[in-house]
Amino acid sequence: MRGGFEIRQVQKLFWVNQTTCWLSLEGSIDAQPGQFVMIWLPGIGEKPFSIASIDPFCLLVVGVGPFSRALLKLSVGDFIWVKGPLGHGFSVDGQRLLLVGGGYGSAPLIPLAKAAKAQNLQVLVCLGAQNSDSILLPEAFENLGFQVSVTTDDGSRGQKGLVTSIVEQALQESDFDTLFACGPVGMLTALAKICCEHQLDYQFSWEAHMRCGLGLCGSCEVPQTFDPSLPVGWLACYDGPVFCKRW
């Protein structure tokens, strides 16, 4: 067995759509919202995954490559190897929170929303994706009693356009203390500019190609061209994946 990994058994599989599965593992995990784990499958490799639920411990797996597709072939009772939690997660700051998820970037926002609910905070959720099938788990936020606004590129669900458009609208209509986001680099870069214009504190979970998950290989460095507020040499796995900017 590889050092630092523990074995977890698959308890449940819930298919969100044809390529995306909610993978429930045995037990819980002592983690902060926004942290991640490294998953190892012997003979296949290891990859990072955001923690989509802390108790029970769940992952949201999207079949976008050989490793994730191998995970989607697992059955209840199978075992996987888990290392973590790793990295720095979200810090719940303020009373009025704006959560923004792009595509499967909604996954790490679910534990954050649950933490906000436990503290009786006000939350607005904005989700964006290419089409209606790619809007993932809006009901996870709605079931907590939070309003969810949706955009799709093709207009098949919610408002047509980019999620940044409804973020701008929300900021014009209400005041928020902090914006939390996870999604594609282009979305986060655009949100950083919006937050700068509004002098709004933000916490972004950056997606990057991770190999070691420990800050040793440097493969997950996020360049300042994505967000000028990022320090030089900022590593998503070690310094992040969450970067906080406070004005």
From TrEMBL:
PANTHER family on file: DIHYDROOROTATE DEHYDROGENASE B (NAD(+)), ELECTRON TRANSFER SUBUNIT, DIHYDROOROTATE DEHYDROGENASE B (NAD(+)), ELECTRON TRANSFER SUBUNIT-RELATED
Protein encoded by which gene: pyrK
Family: Belongs to the PyrK family.
Record text on cofactor binding: Binds 1 [2Fe-2S] cluster per subunit.
Keyword Mitochondrion: no
Domain FAD-binding FR-type: 1-92
Matching InterPro entries: Cyt_c3_hydrogenase_gsu (IPR012165), Dihydroorotate_DH_ele_sf (IPR037117), Dihydroorotate_DH_Fe-S-bd (IPR019480), FAD-bd_FR_type (IPR017927), FNR_nucleotide-bd (IPR039261), OxRdtase_FAD/NAD-bd (IPR001433), PyrK_electron_transfer (IPR050353), Riboflavin_synthase-like_b-brl (IPR017938)
Obligatory cofactor(s): [2Fe-2S] cluster
Residues annotated to bind [2Fe-2S] cluster: 212, 217, 220, 237
GO molecular function, one term: flavin adenine dinucleotide binding
Pfam family for this entry, one: NAD_binding_1
Protein name: Putative dihydroorotate dehydrogenase B (NAD(+)), electron transfer subunit
Superkingdom of the organism of origin: Bacteria
GO biological process: pyrimidine nucleotide biosynthetic process
Keyword terms, alphabetized: 2Fe-2S, Electron transport, FAD, Flavoprotein, Iron, Iron-sulfur, Metal-binding, Transport
